[in-house]
Amino acid sequence: MSERISDFELSRQIHTVLVLHFVEELKQSEIAQRLNLSTSKVNRLIAQGRKLGMVKIDVTSPFQRLAKLEGQLVGATTLNGAMVTPTVSGNPDTTLQQVGRAAANMLLETVRDGDVIAITGGKAISAVVENLSPDRNFDITVVPLTGGVQGKFYTDVNHLASQMAERLGGTPMLIHAPLFAESRNQRDMLKEMASTKEVFDLARRANVALVGVGSVEPRGSSYYDLNPVPESDRKMLVGMGVAAEFMAHLIGENGRLAEYELNSRLVALNPSELQTCRTVIGIAAGKQKVRPIQSVLNGNFLDSLVLDEETVNAVLETMERSKHVA
């Protein structure tokens, strides 16, 4: 009987110490003083409490629903990772900035000294660059995956490569060639120029690639900022099943390169040339990116994807509907 009383008193003492430490957040020295115990005794009681299963840690977060969506997306695709941010209703620019901030953090967690980072142009990549705030400089090289386009700052991949390298403390290498050549022969000639070939060879060996996922819908597509596609062709592209722009290539819903003349004149790496890259991170935001995301996922071009909550919900819903139709 006395032994049971002793066990009860010990359990109660352990409970008291655990409450003071984990609930009231007192230091072990403060608990020792309050209960007239030695600090080592308090430490042993806490250890005993853990061993007896009296301490259970339950981490709650307002972002649990986002983590669940990330798990669902990874489970339904070939992705190795995903990151979902809240959607700011009625404010696509702010939503894109949040996605860019999340992608910037993912990049900082992924990159290592000595890495080569290859990037495309685009609004999403611009949002990533704007939100890069590293704690230290990285010994990295940033290279474009495509030729350059003068004009808006987010379409100029050389500008973004320079900005990213500056923020990370690394070195940029730029492509001094246009994104679109006038013919296939000119494209081949430009890609074989020593300065262009050097950068593209480095891009093929990139450790990390950061790529926007673009829409080709006639409205709201930055693809048409890159080249003068006739209005009739824009509608035709959608009609023939072209769903995405990826690394400036037009991609069909099946994830394959579209049979469209502009693809044959691109001064850019082919998406298949990133297969040896350690991590290919895609960035997208907005419901207009649902079909493009599905297309790129069908092509197995990405290892990770960063997007907003509204967009991932739409992607998952579309996948579920397709499963039932199949």
TrEMBL record:
InterPro entries: NagB/RpiA_transferase-like (IPR037171), RNA_pol_sigma70_r4_t2 (IPR013249), RNA_pol_sigma_r3/r4-like (IPR013324), SorC_transcr_regulators (IPR051054), Sugar-bd_dom_put (IPR007324)
Ranges for domain Sugar-binding: 62-317
Pfam families: Sigma70_r4_2, Sugar-bind
Signal peptide: none
GO biological process, one term: DNA-templated transcription initiation
GO molecular function list: carbohydrate binding; DNA binding; sigma factor activity
Domain (RNA polymerase sigma factor 70 region 4 type) ranges: 10-51
Keywords: DNA-binding, Plasmid, Transcription, Transcription regulation
Superkingdom, natural source: Bacteria
Family designation: Belongs to the SorC transcriptional regulatory family.
Protein name: Sugar-binding transcriptional regulator
Species classification: Bacteria, Pseudomonadati, Pseudomonadota, Alphaproteobacteria, Rhodobacterales
